Amino acid sequence: MNTVLVLGGTSEALALAKELAHEPTTKVIYSLAGRTRRPSLPDCAVRTGGFGGVEGLAAFVTENNIAAILDATHPFAAQMAAHARDATARTAIPLVKFLRPEWNEPADAPWLHAASPAAAATIIRDRFGRVFLSSGLADIAAFAPLSQIWFLVRSVDPSEAPATLAQHHHVIDRGPFDLAAETALLRDWNIDALVSKNSGGDATGAKLAAAGALGISVVMIDRPPVPPGLLYDDLATTLGAVRDILR
Ligand code: NAP
């Protein structure tokens, strides 16, 4: 039996873990940071919570006789990606990374690019009045000083974080979101700008098409750099790479 540690927290990680768990000679341990209250889980061993940095992850790899790590975390989970790279280097086991493709910028409606949530806050500060903040609860603090802006915030779980914004409405909803619903949301709340991370993927991409159709400005937080290594952007090739390693 070969044991694969799947670093999860995305729909693709879930799909990859489910596929690998079907293999008779593979044991899968699916790992979550523990940010979501009711995460979707594969039918395999699951562990939750940080490992305790590179040291902790390297120790986990050794103690659990991990044969390979598949990092399928979110494109903005840069710290976990760096820790996976460093821990696999230290323990001399293979690392495969799945990274979903970025969303493409429409040629006829260029985005305003930001390198960070703080940079996005600077961009919107004097330009917009009613902003759909879809970049995630973890980054809300960067927007809290903008008391003159009204924010629409959406999250999977209830949270106190939006309350740090002077003017806001908080919607609790879980994707996937379709174009009709996203268009209605932006129109009904009279939104004039959308702030998003370039997460990629189908589940939350409709907001961009809706913004385009309504002529709403998009402020896009660009992805952090990716550590070097085996990198794939489709599920079949990723599975093939992991299977090759375990063969
Ligand atoms: P991060 O900044 O890269 O990670 C921070 C710390 O959280 C890591 O150093 C690690 O703690 C722990 N961690 C992260 N992912 C983990 C995993 N899969 N299993 C065990 N521990 C994990 O990542 P993040 O932005 O906090 O994201 C956390 C999780 O949420 C990721 O799994 C990611 O796929 C998911 N997610 C993130 C976003 C986003 O926008 N960032 C969006 C959707 C989903 P230790 O150092 O103690 O090991």
Name some characteristics of this structure.
single chain, 7 helices, 6-stranded parallel beta sheet, binds NADP nicotinamide-adenine-dinucleotide phosphate, 12 strands, Rossmann fold, elongated, 2 domains, 247 residues, alpha/beta
Q: Can you describe what's shown?
A:
The chain has 247 residues and is of the alpha/beta class. It folds into 2 domains: 2-101 and 225-246, NAD(P)-binding Rossmann-like Domain (Rossmann fold, 3-Layer(aba) Sandwich), CATH 3.40.50; 112-221, Rossmann fold (3-Layer(aba) Sandwich), CATH 3.40.50. Helices cover 31% and strands 24% of the residues. The protein has helices at residues 11-21, 53-63, 78-91, 117-125, 179-188, 206-214, 235-246, and strands at 2-7, 26-32, 45-48, 66-71, 95-98, 112-114, 130-133, 150-155, 167-172, 193-197, 217-221, 230-232. α1 (11-21) links the parallel β1 (2-7) and β2 (26-32). The protein starts with a strand and ends with a helix. The mean pLDDT is 96. Residues 7-10, 31-33, 35, 50-53, 56-57, 73-74, 76-80, 83, 136, 197 line the site of NADP nicotinamide-adenine-dinucleotide phosphate (NAP).
Short description:
With 247 residues, the protein is an alpha/beta fold. It has two domains: 122 residues, 3-Layer(aba) Sandwich (Rossmann fold); 110 residues, NAD(P)-binding Rossmann-like Domain (Rossmann fold, 3-Layer(aba) Sandwich), CATH 3.40.50. It is elongated, with a radius of gyration of 19 Å.
